[in-house]
Amino acid sequence: MDYKAQVTNSILSVLNDELSSAEVYEKLEKPKTLAMGDLAFPAFSLAKVFHKAPNAIAEELVSKIDQSSYEKVEAKGAYLNFFLDKGNFSNEILNEVLEEGSAYGQNDNGKGGNVPIDMSSPNIAKPISMGHLRSTVIGNSIAKLLVKNGYHPIKDNHLGDWGTQFGKLIVAYKKWGNEEDVKKDPINNLVKYYVKFHVEDKEHPELDDEARETFKKLEDGNKEEVFLWKWFRKVSLESFNKIYKKLGVTFDTYNGEAFYNDKMDEGIQILKDKGLLVESQGAQVVKLDKYNLNPALILKSDGATLYITRDIATAIYRDRTYKPAMNLYVVGAEQTYYFQQLKAVLLEMGLPSAENLHHIPFGLITVNGKKLSTRSGRIILLDKVLDDAIDLAKKQIEAKNPDLPNKDEVAKEVGVGAIIFGDLKNERTNNIDFVLEDQLRFEGETGPYVQYSHARAESILRKAGDIDLQGANKRLDDPAAWETVTALKDFPDVVKSACKDFEPSEVAKYSLRLAKAFNKYYAHSKILVEDDQLAARLSLVKAVSIVLKESLNLLGVKAPDAM
């Protein structure tokens, strides 16, 4: 039931067309605390109509309103505060959650529309570091939110598998590497060669010329360079997929930059045909003055292509292949201006999906305030962080619940979940300074706290035994449960809002709010007491378990039944 609509109708019943239904509905507010009611209407807007002080108007309206369907309605200052009937409300919400289960909050707003999500996108022959975590888990959570809102996401791991860095890597491998070492430990050895190249080229700048020549050989299809490139790509993907498996992240396509290498001519030709490509200092650019942007460089003076040339080809391919409802790029905030230029160029080209291209920016992960960098050798490997988190989770589980039968599996779910949740609880545009121990705490605003709250709910249900909740009366009159019940009601709105804003943190913050409300209720109420409200209380516990599990699922985090 739309309780805002119910309150709107109650207010309209004591007005004489002074406000429309839409105006009343829009003016309704949620009070700061539950003690002030569940919904409030400010009477300020009626002061000019009634020629009275808002306080007096509120008092007068309250005296006329039929309060039979509410717990009470009262005037507080200039506000009419509506307190919903707790029994009816809880019965309706708990029935809805238990009947719908994990589908609670599902909607079909997306009408099945395709949404390609450009996400993760590590560079071949470089390790997946903590710097890649954000794009991966934010993109994965947005994909889950899109499904929940009726869209069809297409997760595209747009690999960095082309460019002059491969000239540098091939030169470095030939000078300092060997096949046996790469076979033993591909990524760590390849990145050592890459870092060594950047150390050496400070003293020997001629190495850069050699790297450019080597990349030209690769572009021209030279057999040796192509063999090395394919080998580096294969061993890199094998390494990446082990980490993605730990994170529980899958992709629908791995089309990297190299895939679009032979598809750039079409985009360049469209720009030429539309008269958009103009010469500037020997290079080819698209002027973007009408967007208040600098010209977009499309081709260098020597005819060489750039990232944007390949991204134009990518956008054309996705537009043609998927007919997207939206096109999402989950890429760091430092690329915001670039994506403004890309979108402007695609709009000028007349690409149908350009209007719905969205850059989803996010802040940096730092460690001790320092930015991570592969080139400088200052990297923290994501694989090691995940392993450390799993080990720390296992130690805590050993201390808290040594008899837990599936400790290793739960430790993995808690450890990996802690890293994912620790990222996603932050608004994505914020920078994060990473501290492993803070993420793994079982108390406070952490993933393990929410997981533990879910496990607690499941433990209560196991202790209760086999009780049929489906047909039970779920009218819960206990005021201590009200904060939890109203939080459950908010979940569908959070699902819509988080998807609309591309903001997984809204779900993470919601899960913390629900977990805190439930734990407060648990601390102050005896649940397993044989009385006429037992089934209603257990229905609340079951509903909390369902919604906490689904909230975590939308973040890409598992919810163990015992911890």
From TrEMBL:
Q: What class of enzyme is it?
A: ligase
Supply the name of the protein.
Answer: Arginine--tRNA ligase
- The EC number(s) attached to this protein equal 6.1.1.19
GO MF annotation list: arginine-tRNA ligase activity; ATP binding
Q: Which residues form the Arginyl tRNA synthetase N-terminal domain?
A: 5-84
| Pfam families per the UniProt record, alphabetical | Arg_tRNA_synt_N (PF03485), DALR_1 (PF05746), tRNA-synt_1d (PF00750)
Family statement drawn from the similarity comment of this UniProt entry: Belongs to the class-I aminoacyl-tRNA synthetase family.
Q: Name one GO cellular component term.
A: cytoplasm
Q: Which domain of life is it from?
A: Bacteria
Listed A to Z, the keywords are: Aminoacyl-tRNA synthetase, ATP-binding, Cytoplasm, Ligase, Nucleotide-binding, Protein biosynthesis
- Domain DALR anticodon binding residue range list: 450-563
Name the HAMAP family for this protein. Arg_tRNA_synth (MF_00123)
The record's subunit annotation is: Monomer.
Origin species, per record, is Lentilactobacillus otakiensis DSM 19908 = JCM 15040
* Reactions that this protein is recorded to catalyse: tRNA(Arg) + L-arginine + ATP = L-arginyl-tRNA(Arg) + AMP + diphosphate
Subcellular locations according to the entry: Cytoplasm
Query: Which SUPFAM superfamilies would you find in this protein's record?
Result: Anticodon-binding domain of a subclass of class I aminoacyl-tRNA synthetases (SSF47323), Arginyl-tRNA synthetase (ArgRS), N-terminal 'additional' domain (SSF55190), Nucleotidylyl transferase (SSF52374)
Transmembrane found in the keyword field: no
List the ranges annotated as motif 'HIGH' region.
Answer: 122-132
List this protein's GO terms for biological process: arginyl-tRNA aminoacylation
